[in-house]
Amino acid sequence: MLRFSRMQTLQKFVAVHTSVSNHFNQERYLYSRANFKLNRAAALAEWGLLCSA
User: Fold this and answer.
1) Mean per-residue pLDDT for 22-26?
2) How far apart are CA 51 and CA 26, in angstroms?
3) CA of 34: how far to CAs of 29, 38, 47, in Å?
């Protein structure tokens, strides 16, 4: 966090990082590989829709 010279920049980064992290960070150890891949594909598709808007 020392790389951010302004608090506003840090807050913007954390806000975006939290959204992305929560979207993709699924607790892998709770899912089988097949379910993990399905959930990951759904997350990527939704993220693609959000980015294209």
Assistant:
1) 68
2) 20
3) 12, 6, 20
Could you tell me the sign of the dihedral formed by the alpha carbons of 48, 31, 20, 4, in that order?
negative
Residue type (1 letter), 45 = A
Q: What is residue 53's predicted lDDT score, i.e. its pLDDT?
A: 62
DSSP code at position 6: S
Instruction: Name the average pLDDT for the chain.
Output: 79
**Residue in the structure block whose two tokens are 């891949």:** 37
| Contact call for residues 13 and 4 (beta carbons, < 8 A) | yes
What DSSP assignment string belongs to 3-36? Answer: T-SSHHHHHHHHHHHHHHHHHH---GGGS-HHHH
Domain residue ranges of the chain, discontinuous segments joined by + = 29-53
